[in-house]
Amino acid sequence: MKIDIVSVFPEYFEVMNLSLMGKAQAKGLLEIKAHNLRDWTHDVHHSVDDTPVGGGAGMVMKPEVWGECLDELLGLSQQSDSVPAPGIAADSDADTNQSDDPVSAANTQSASVNVPVSSDGSPAESDMSAQLSAPVLIFPNPSAPLFTQRDATELSHAKHLLFGCGRYEGYDARIPDYYRSQGIDVREYSIGDYVLNGGEVAVSVMLEAITRLMPGFMGNPDSIVEESYTGEGALLEHHQYTKPAVWRDIAVPNVLLSGDHGKVNRYRRDEALARTAEIRPDLIAALDCKALDKADRKT
Ligand code: 6GU
Prior knowledge:
Residues 1-74, 133-285 form the tRNA methyltransferase TRMD/TRM10-type domain. Belongs to the RNA methyltransferase TrmD family. Keywords: Cytoplasm, Methyltransferase, S-adenosyl-L-methionine, Transferase, tRNA processing. The chain is of the alpha/beta class. It folds into two domains: 2-76 and 111-211, SPOUT methyltransferase, trefoil knot domain (Alpha/beta knot); 227-298, tRNA(m1g37)methyltransferase, domain 2 (Trp Operon Repressor, Chain A). It has helices at 19-26, 63-74, 90-100, 102-110, 149-155, 174-181, 200-211, 261-279, 281-285, 294-298; strands at 2-7, 31-36, 49-50, 60-61, 136-140, 160-164, 185-189, 246-247, 250-251.
C-alpha cells in the first residue's frame, strides 16, 4: 500500500518508522511518504492559509496550494488557478480558462478519472475485501462522519491512500468538492467528539487502525479476528487475564481455568454482551438481531 500524507508538520510522521508500522515499511508492505504542503507555495512567506470569507475567527487553508499539491500527488494534470475579478461568477472563470489557456483547457478533460462510486458510498459488508484500486483521498475533519472499524477494514484493501492534514480553522470546502467532481474517491472523517489542533494526530490514528488490518501486517492474524468492533455483531471485548491465577487476592474467574472451551466461550460472550450493554448501549441498539445466538437471548 502506498500512503502519501500532506501536512505543514511532516516531521509528525517520523514515528511511522517505529514498531510494527516501521517493520511493515521495511518488509515493503507499506510505503509511507510525508510531504510538506509549503513545498507547493510560490510566495516568499510560504503561506498556506488566509482569513475566512464571510468573517469569523482563525484562518482557513487556501485551495490553490492544496490544488497544486494534490494534482501532483494524484497524477492529475495541473490546473491553472486564474483569479476572477470580484463579482465574476465561477462559470465565466472556466470560459476564461478555455479561451486564454488552451493547454489547461485541454488538460481539464484528461484530468477526469472516472471511478465507479456506489450510491451511498459505502460497500456492503460482503464487498469489504474488494481491492480499492483507485486512490482514496482522505481529509481528517472534526465536523465529518465518525471513522469506524468498518472504514478501517474497507481502506485496508486500498492500493493508494492520500491524507491531507488541515490546520487552523480547517480547509476551504472547495478542495474536497473539486476532487469529487474529478471522480476521485474523497472521504472526510472525524475520529471522535472532541477538537484537535490539526489533522496530524487523527491521520496517525486512522493509519494505525487501517494498516494493522492489512494481510501480512500482524505476526498473528488471529489476534485481530476476535477484537472489539469487528464483525457483524460488534461488541466490546471480554476481559483478558494471564497468570498467576490469584494476584493481590484477586482471582481469575474460575471458569477460565476449567479447560472447558464451550463454557469459556459462553462466559466470554456473556461478559462481552453485559459490558457492551453497560458501557456502550448504542452498540447494542445497533446490533443486527441475526448476530445474536439462542443462548444470548436467554441471558
Ligand atoms: Cl479528524 N481533526 C481535528 N482537527 N480534530 C478532530 C478530528 C479531526 N477528529 C476529532 N477531532
